[in-house]
Design goal:
Layout (H helix, E strand, L loop, with lengths): L6 H28 L4 H9 L18 H12 L3 H21 L2 H12 L4 E5 L15 E5 L2 E12 L6 E14 L5 E11 L5 E3 L13 E12 L3 E2 L5 H37 L1 E2 L2 E2 L4 H29 L5 H26 L9 H8 L10 H11 L5
Helix pairs in contact: 1-3, 3-4, 3-6, 4-5, 4-6, 6-7, 6-8, 7-8, 8-9, 8-10
Family: Belongs to the acyl-CoA dehydrogenase family.
Protein name: Acyl-CoA dehydrogenase
Cofactor: FAD
Length: 388
């Protein structure tokens, strides 16, 4: 398996890197301060085809693959994690479930629109009592006169309340089975909820530690009615389907982590070479040079990890464990590099206009989202045969 980029992927990487450096980076501090999603930048990303990268041209996509998406996400995350996660979640959690499991009618209706970047979709899984433990899901959906009636709440949902959000995929309990031993098994099903739909409310955005530009809301479903045909995939397959969605999403998330770690590395190299103290650059001090060398090692390892998982995925090979390894390694690299970069910059690293300060705030969530580090360790250990 070769990790050498094709000429096409090198061109994509260079294009997105240039866009990130010339368009996203200069505006990052302004939008971070405003805590607002920059719709103009999102529109430009749509025009570049970034939201349609892994989808066939017949659905308005670019005919590329998931590896290409990850390359784009990594380059964006170097300068702004919020913009990167808008793309990563918009594709991996928003469009991909519809493309993977939707009917032909559903795909024709939603994928071209979402792939254009003119609309965003969200994945409503997490609740106060459910996330890693899907059995804790309390949101319900019952059939009534050919319609699903949905009631419940969701939390921490990305891209769910923006001005261009047009679809939320909701996981809900659609039945309960009592087993012979008296235990209860919930039937989980995924259902498409267009926005706006009466009874669906995106509550005010969270006041987050980081990812200020990313759109994140709690959601309320109060007797929300959608057609029975809005069932996504098979009834009762919601659990299996969302596990696959998260497995795939972790690879792109790992690429985002790698980009964040790389952004901290690049800023640290630049500063260490330009900042002079006692008549010489701080990079000439071995303890600074060694710190940056460790940062480089983390980026290299994280990049190899997500590329390995992505290549296995696009080649149809098992990748579940590799995706969890990539996500864990990448998130730890991002957090460690953000901490070291802030230390290298000293007081300047504590100022919000400095990119490393934003990475320091943003990177902690990388160890939480798309499954915590502990969840990744659980997945990896199970793959190794440990079932305790």
């Amino acid at each position: 398996m070769s990790y050498e980029l094709t000429e096409e992927n090198r061109k994509l990487q260079a294009m997105v890197r240039d866009f990130a450096d010339t368009v996203v980076a200069p505006a990052a501090y302004e939008y971070d301060t405003k805590r607002a999603l920059p719709y103009g930048i999102i529109a430009e990303m749509g025009e570049m085809g970034l939201f349609g990268l892994p989808f066939p041209t017949e659905y308005g996509g670019q005919g590329r693959d998931y590896f290409a998406l990850c390359l784009a996400v990594e380059q964006l995350a170097r300068v702004d994690q919020s913009i990167a996660v808008t793309l990563e979640a918009g594709v991996g959690l928003g469009i991909m479930p519809v493309y993977r499991r939707g009917t032909e009618e559903q795909k024709q209706e939603w994928v071209p629109r979402l792939a254009s970047g003119s609309a965003l979709a969200a994945f409503g899984l997490t609740e106060a009592e459910a996330g890693s433990d899907a059995a804790g899901t309390r949101t319900t959906a019952t059939l009534d006169g050919g319609e699903w009636v949905i009631n419940g709440t969701k939390q921490f949902i990305t891209n769910s309340g923006s001005e261009i959000t047009r679809l939320v995929t909701v996981t809900a309990v659609t039945g309960v089975e009592t087993r012979p031993d008296g235990s209860v098994k919930k039937e989980l099903t995924a259902i498409l909820v267009p926005t706006p739909t009466p009874g669906f409310t995106a509550l005010p955005a969270y006041d987050k530690v980081g990812w200020h530009t990313s759109d994140t809301h709690p959601l309320v479903f109060d007797d929300v009615r959608v057609p029975e045909a809005n069932l996504l995939g098979e009834r009762g397959r919601g659990f299996a389907n969302f596990v696959q969605t998260l497995d795939e999403g972790r690879i792109a998330f790992a690429a985002l982590c790698t980009g964040a770690a790389a952004g901290c590395l690049e800023e640290s190299i630049r500063y260490a070479n330009s900042r002079n103290v006692f008549g010489r650059s701080i990079g000439s001090n071995q303890h600074i040079a060694f710190k940056i060398a460790r940062m480089q090692a983390r980026v290299h390892t994280a990049r190899l990890a997500w590329q390995d998982a992505a290549l296995k995925m696009v080649n149809g090979q098992p990748f579940k464990m590799e995706a969890s390894i990539a996500k864990m390694v990448g998130s730890e690299a991002a957090m460690d590099n953000a901490r070291d970069a802030t230390q290298i910059f000293g007081g300047y690293g504590f100022m919000n206009e400095n990119p490393v300060a934003r990475h320091y705030r943003d990177s902690k969530v990388l160890e939480l989202g798309e499954g915590t580090t502990e969840v990744q360790l659980m997945v990896i250990s199970r793959a190794l045969g440990f079932t305790g």
